[in-house]
Design a protein that fits this description.
Blueprint: E1 13-22, E2 25-34, E3 37-42, E4 52-55, E5 60-63, E6 65-70, H1 83-92, E7 95-100, H2 111-120, E8 127-132, H3 146-151, E9 156-158, H4 167-180, E10 183-186, H5 191-194, E11 199-200, H6 203-208, E12 212-213, H7 215-232, E13 236-238, H8 244-256, E14 260-264, H9 267-270, H10 292-304, E15 309-310, H11 319-322, H12 339-346, H13 351-358, H14 360-366, E16 388-398, E17 417-427, E18 430-434, E19 437-438
Parallel strand pairs: 1-4, 1-5, 6-7, 7-8, 8-9, 9-10, 10-13, 11-12, 13-14, 14-15
Antiparallel strand pairs: 1-2, 2-3, 5-16, 16-17, 17-18, 18-19
Helix pairs in contact: 4-7, 7-8, 8-10
Length: 440
Amino acid sequence: MSEGHAMGTMPELLIRGGTVIDRTGERRADVRVVDGTVVEVGKGLSASAGATELDAGGCAVTPGLVDLHTHLREPGREEAETVESGTRAAALGGFTAVVAMPNTDPPLDSAESVRNVFALAEGAMAQVAVAGAITVGRAGERLAPMAELAALGVRLFTDDGDGVQSAGLMLRALQYATGLGVTLGQHCEDRSLAAGGTMHEGAWSSRLGLPGMPSEAEEVMVARDIALSRATGGRVHFLHLSTAGSIDLVRRARAEGIPVTAEVAPHHFTLTDGCTSTYDPIFKVNPPLRTQSDVDAVKAALMDGTADAIATDHAPHSPELKDLPFDQAPPGMLGLETALALAITELDLTLERIVALLSWQPAVIAGLDPDHGGCQGGPIAPGAVANLCVIDPTATWTVDPKSMASRSRNTPYSGRTLTGRVRHTVLAGEPVVIDAEAQR
């Protein structure tokens, strides 16, 4: 396994009575794990004396979920989240790996800062991969030392929170990234169009008297980076797309064979800009909540394969910041503990398709899958590292911010009843969540 979690000798584990779902299909099977590795998958398996047994009756046993977009806040804003608290939330949400965004303080733009996060993640409840910054300080002026960071295992680079405003600089970054075999993730926001906006520009922003961010601010940069990807052959991953126009651009680029991928966040297929009608900053996010037609387009992208992944954009903020007036409060919502259930509740997709969007497809984009030397999202088969999630697809539960593992409480789903819950999470053979309760 890569940096962030070290495997050691541990008791044998048997996951009994579930339906295994992975990229090879679906079958009823038990899963036996020894020393962190899957050793048997089949019906009627038995375990050695003293083995830990997990009941998976009525549940799906899947590869662990992988989040492409997590803000762990450490270093710099530990009052909102730490690697420890964030990975506990991840494990409770079924995630065995998260990609930590680089907009920390200091930003993750140097070998020292990346090594620091890897050190913080030793013994964490999920594997922590790091997204390095594209530019020094995320300032958009000169390229970060991508080769040095790639040598440490960084496979995704982004200035998330800011889009790279200069087309020329983005072109050079893509040329550089192509030689390194890494992917550039883009937060698509043209600053000259979005400047001063606090929510989606439309009927609701006019009604509320709040400055808006037009859809075009996102779409202009999506179109630009598709052109740059076409020109260079460099891989671009579009972060948290939110508009129908962006989805259409990506759909056409994919049809042309341009090497772009895209993620969408749960709040962009479950909430609209009308949620801001009470001026509650809990609904402030960037990119902002859009219209119902945009929500429908995001759902369609998940159904037809235009969107490759559901990513949480888990963005914790301390209460004193999120309680500021709407125009002053920072954007962002919690996401790790609710993403799977929101997908099951809101999307007209099979569980296999939902898990693909949350597990093996994001693992490939992040370079964490076995084909890239990682241990996330691969088939559940003998020899695989046991990063597993056991999902009860029919369980219902009510979102309670006070019971969440995050240090912050900024979920927009408080009081909402959802269907689908993680029963167990297994990290490298260790049950870190049993019966929806964290084990450490």
